Amino acid sequence: MSECSCTSSQSPEFDATALEAILSSGSTVEGALVPILQASQDAYGYLPRPALEMIARSLRLPLAEVYGVATFYAQFHLEPRGKHIVRICHGTACHVRGATEITDVIVGELGVEVGSTSEDLSFTVESVACVGCCGLAPVVLIDGETHGGLSTQAARRIVSKLQREQTQ
Amino acid sequence: MTAPKTTSTEVATIRICTGSGCAMNGSIAAADRLESAIAAANATDRVQVVRTGCHGLCELGPITVIEPGNVFYPKLTEAKAAQVVDALLGDGQPVSEFLYRENRGGDPVVRYQDLPFNHIQQRIVLRNCGVIDPEDLDYAIESGAYEALRTVVTTLSPDQLIETVAASGLRGRGGAGFSTGQKWRFAHDAPGDEKYVICNADEGDPGAFMDRSIAEGDPHSVLEGLAIAAYAVGASRGFIYCRAEYPLAVKRLRKAIADAQERGLIGDQVMGSDFALHIEVREGAGAFVCGEETALIASVEGRRGMPRSRPPFPATSGLWGKPTVINNVETLANLSWIIRNGAEAYAEFGTGTSKGTKVFALTGKVRHGGLVEVPMGLTVGTLVYDVGGGCPDGTTCKAVQIGGPSGGCLPAELFDTQIEYEALAAAGAVVGSGGMVVVDEHTCMVDLARYFLAFTQDESCGKCVPCRIGTKRMLEIVTGICEGRGQADDIETLERLALDIRRSSLCGLGQTAPNPVLTTLRYFREELEEHITLKKCRAGQCKELACFEVIAEKCRGCGICKKVCPVDAISGEAKEVHHIDTEKCVKCGQCELRCPFEAITHV
Predict the structure, then answer these.
(1) For A91, which of B56, B206, B244 is closest by C-beta distance?
(2) Which residue from A68, A73, A97 is facing B287, i.e. has the nearest CB?
(3) Tens-of-pLDDT digits for all 168 residues of chain A?
(4) Closest-approach residue (CA) in chain B for A131
């Protein structure tokens, strides 16, 4: 890869140790790119550019292809994410049981739009297609923990609690 | 129910669901508490706790069933657990106040199988879900797992196996409904030494969770099914492509594979025969289109999950260009039952062209939502009213959305439509993967069509023009209608676009994307026209068409609404009833959302 000033300045402190381990154990598998991206995101919380470059070199793929795959799938994130991840389910059952109102409440309380992260990297709010807990709609996941059967009041309560915990 | 682990009649078994839904409601803590209470009473030799997969009745979770007696406790929380154990070890009588009641103050329904929800169900696929501990291979084997695989590898030739499955009439449960036997036949006959089988567990339809529950509740039935499929087509490698949003399913499938491999049930010599099969799980990465066969293959190969045109079909040229069979989770979970009970027994369920049972995820505005398995051929109404108990809170069922983004809405007048591939297709819906969402009069059918269109539009991979641009244009028109910008010629444009997209899209996602709009046009045209000509939403769901009002009796004059209104449309003195100027109001809905007394409503 040729010298490019825009890459190194972005994450000068990129620690490649975790990625090296991932690449050494997984790059020989057929169709390795997606599992490697998944493991890298698990390790770093998102996919920093230096990681994508290392993966491309290691798998002998053009960086554009790696970037193409990373941006195709909703699971991958190229920007750092918040400490707390709030995911609002928008499956059909959640939709007919008030996911839109729940979204308005959460966005209003946290001041973070859907699909974005607060400036202080405290919260990320995103919508998810369906988490398969439709019997308990509407559902919100906070840091992977599921909260079901929410009213707008209940949604406001859990988000306020999260805010309090964050400021403490 | 199958027999408990030991045959002693002294032993009681407490089955508590630890599927995703019940776990959310605290079943893990409740199960721990049950175990500690049993240990404290020195009764571990007399009472065992089994942590099962999903029963399907998620809203009453944590679901607990005690044998003997089939005693059912809904919502068994940690706080109730010790008391339940005390009663069991004491006089053996159930704790009356914890039992399930249809109505407040009514007689309790003691036995789980007596619930109206369970009456009509016919459990073939879900036979072990909610019964066995899904992480315990021995338990699965005692319940008959891998018996069918043994029969297949020791007594049947691939040809005989394919004949049997074809005779059962089993069709793909993922949506398309193609004959499983025929699919296998194509892959079996395709030339090539190396072939693959893939289990499609990329359940992407919003509102559907059948595959999640099967994979979480009985993972060995999926593995066994995949192994049977592999034997039929001559594959030695299998993949399970599972949605990343289902972490518990992924974990249980991986454990099931490791356990089965260690026991020689799969691996280099399946059951000691010369048939070899290695299975691995690949996690999806969040793309709905990967449920489509060719897109799924691209994703497993590590590329962007974009479909390609067919032919060649995956059965002749699939994963890495080799013949590949892709079967859905539910399809595979049927197989061991078919082998053990015979094709004729399976074909006795269902109708002429739709055999067997189908699992549905019944959700939305329904009293008893959850996972239900019924024989094909029942009517939609039976499922909604008899199994689901109709709409809650005295509202009227308006329609049922069947088949997710590829399906459509059937109005209540058509609830006598039979659940089978052809009848539903004729009515404009599809069996699909089995999502069934009930809606009542408070649901706007135009908004629902917009919802699905927004979903498919967002998930369109962008490869072909009709889907990429066509669905975008349709979404703009439908959104305009919902927001009061509907034009007289919108309906005609929507119809034309819908038919063009259906005809010319590359894959199933695009071809079926217009279905929700088409059924709304077909059955709820009046409601759509009202939006356009009268700028009225009868369900009161399209906010831009609504009129916000203060309910005088509830308003305390706190002034919060006045503060949050971005256009100063609200006036009123402190502690007096406030008023909304409808001329100024931009219908943002903030006042209704923020009012602490629920004193603002929209009509």
Answers:
(1) B206
(2) A73
(3) 444 444 444 455 789 999 999 999 877 778 899 999 999 999 999 999 999 999 999 999 999 999 999 999 999 999 999 999 999 999 888 888 889 989 999 999 999 999 999 999 999 999 988 887 888 889 999 998 889 989 989 999 999 999 998 887
(4) B245
> For position B540, what pLDDT does the model report?
85
Residue count of chain A: 168
CA separation, residue B294 to residues A117, B175, B301, B307, B314 (Å): 34, 15, 11, 5, 7
CATH of B547-602 among 3.30.420.40, 3.30.70.20, 3.30.750.24, 3.60.9.10: 3.30.70.20
Q: Which phi and psi (to 5°) does residue B232 adopt? A: -65, -45
Q: Which of B304, B452, B594 sits opposite A72 (nearest CB)?
A: B304
Cross-chain CB nearest to B204 (options A30, A129, A137): A129
Q: Report the side by side order of strands in the sheet with A140-142.
A: A116-117, A123-128, A84-89, A140-142, A145-147
Number of neighbouring beta carbons within 10 Å of residue A113: 11
- Domain B12-114 listed as CATH 2.30.30.40: no
Which amino acid appears at position B209 of this protein? F
Cα–Cα distance between B57 and A131 in angstroms, integer? 16
pLDDT in tens, A46-95: 999 999 999 999 999 999 999 999 999 999 999 999 999 999 999 888 88
**What distance in Å separates residue A100's CA from the closest CA in chain B?**
11
**Would the CATH topology of B357-440 be identical to that of B445-534?**
no
Alpha helices (runs of H) in chain A, residue ranges in sequence order: 5-8, 17-26, 33-44, 49-59, 63-72, 92-96, 99-110, 152-167
For an interface test with A, the pick among B17, B20, B290 (most A C-beta atoms closer than 10 Å) comes out as B20
* Contact state of A93 with B212 under an 8 Å Cβ cutoff: no
Is B357-440 a CATH 3.10.20.600 domain? yes
Domain ranges of chain B: 12-114, 137-345, 357-440, 445-534, 547-602
Cis peptide before B158 (omega within 30 of 0): no
CATH superfamily of B137-345: NADH-ubiquinone oxidoreductase 51kDa subunit (3.40.50.11540)
Residues B566, B588 contacting (CB under 8 angstroms):
yes
For residues B594 and B543, is the Cβ–Cβ distance under 8 A?
no
Chain B interface test: which of A67, A130, A146, A150 (most B C-beta within 10 Å): A130
Q: What is the mean pLDDT of residues B533-546?
A: 89
- Taking the CA of residue A137 and the nearest CA in chain B, the distance in Å comes to 8
Residues of B in contact with A77 (CB under 8 A): none
> For residue range B557-570, what is the model confidence (pLDDT) as tens digits?
999 999 989 889 99
Which segment, B23-27, B413-417, B434-438, is predicted with the most confidence on average? B413-417
Residue A72: closest C-alpha in chain B: B304
Domain B445-534 is found in CATH 3.40.605.10: no
Nearest residue of A to residue B438 by CA position? Answer: A93
Among B20-29, B350-359, B409-418, where is mean pLDDT lowest?
B20-29
Write the residue in A35, A108, A137 that is nearest to B363 by C-beta.
Answer: A137
**Which pLDDT tens digit goes with each residue over B344-354?**
999 999 999 99
Least Cα separation, residue B24 to chain A (angstroms): 6
Residues 6+ apart with CB under 8 A from B42: none
Q: How confident is the model at residue B364 (pLDDT cuts 50, 70, 90)?
A: confident
B477 vs B461: CA distance, rounded Å: 21
Beta-carbon separation of A133 and B203 below 8 A: no
Give the pLDDT confidence of B76-121 residue by residue, as tens digits. Answer: 999 999 999 999 999 889 999 999 998 888 899 999 989 888 888 9
CA distance A53 to chain B (A): 17
